Amino acid sequence: MNGMTLIVKQVTKLVIGFILMFSAYIILYGHLTPGGGFVGGVMLACGFILLVLAFGKTFVNTILSDHALTGWDCVGALGFAAMALAGYYAGAFAANFLARPGTFKLFSAGTILPINLAIGIKVGAAMAAAFIALTTFHPEHEPDLRGTLL
Amino acid sequence: MNYDLLPYLLAMTVVGVGLYAVVCKRNVIKLIVGIIILDYGVNLFLLLTGYRHDGIAPILTPQADRQQFADRAVDPVPQALILTSIVIGLGVVALMTAMAIRIHEKYDTFDLSQIHQLKG
Amino acid sequence: MPILLVLIGLLIFAALAAVEAKELLSTVISVGAAGLILSVIFVVLGAPDLAITQVVVEVLTLVLLIRAAVMREDSTFEARRDRFVIAVGLLGGGILLTSAYFAFATLRAFGQPSMQLAQGYLDQGFERTGAANYVMAVLLDFRAYDTLGEATVIFASIVGVYVIIRKVGKHHHERHDTHR
Predict the structure, then answer these.
(1) Is B120 among the domain residues?
(2) How many Cβ pairs within 8 Å bridge chains A and C?
(3) Among partner residues C54, C104, C171, which is closest to B5 by beta-carbon distance?
(4) Domain residue limits at B51
(5) CB contact under 8 A, A104 and B62
(6) Which of B62, B87, B94 sits opposite A38 (nearest CB)?
(7) What is the pLDDT of residues A70-108, one digit of tens each?
(8) What distance lies between CA A6 and its chain's CA centroid?
(9) Which residue range forms the structural domain that includes residue C11?
């Protein structure tokens, strides 16, 4: 799959850093300002899609392949399950057991921050993988998915 | 005519438009658009049940008065449900688009009346 | 509130334009417009999380629909109108609205929610969870098990996309064989 013209590539190079940093801000500060894991994850997927559309799939595969995307999806899901099971340390499933120094700060909400991070990674990788599957798999050559679906 | 119910009835009209598209249209893409509009209508209806008159968003700022906030904030529980529902709607649209692409590759058309083989 | 009624009226208009358009590209763009109007409705109703989510998901839906479906050749156009099906559809819509009108008499009036569940969350949520965004507190602390189920549903739909796109159909193989 080919990329686009030189102007699009230059503008993408300038803008992609801001997009990824803004989505990281939305994910990490989800417990203080509007946002959270779901929106940040979809924004991450949008940044990745911008890269694929501007530079072509063959170039982006050298940074992050299809196998790696499904791998990050599973990492996010397992991270969420691990945080919820670790709540048994405080007595209940998905209990909020981490320490909370201060109010209105980054670490002031206990387990909400790691769960936001896990959901952000999961939703971002899932939506990016769905986009890659829907738009770049052609029926002539069967996509090489051995080993990614367990 | 009870004018207090007018926002609810308009939300159900959006659901009705989506349902009309799902039932009456022959193009698969219009069917997908119908399901998207159905999602919009249902999310809007859920949010309307949680609205409070002159309500403020349920986000606490350091300078806010706690008692006034608890008296004036809108209901946060329907908003949490709708947040997950919107992202699930995106997953469902991706799945339906995958099916539409498969249908097009097999039958070379998006017209539902030409698709008459259930096997193969 | 008049601004809310005007916006919902615009949403109905955009939805009707999307459903009745002749070209597929017009349909997809009208759905995009409807999504943006819905995001403004979410802001008016006091839900900033939902407004951000709706805008971003709307853009991704547009990209999916345009890139995957509209750019393939499409050989359908709705020449003959199936009057019976349209009549049944409109009759069904009428029955839906009438029964909705009678069923909503049991709902509380618009603007006065019952808040049975939420008043406890609003009063003590900040001390119990430490989060200032009450929607995230409800989603990830008071109702974390439901969020785990929702993450599973998204995972299942994406695995479904991979499974559907992966296999090449038998009809396609036979067509390729006859061309040789």
Answers:
(1) no
(2) 142
(3) C104
(4) 3-114
(5) yes
(6) B87
(7) 999 999 999 999 988 888 877 777 778 777 777 788 888
(8) 27
(9) 1-75
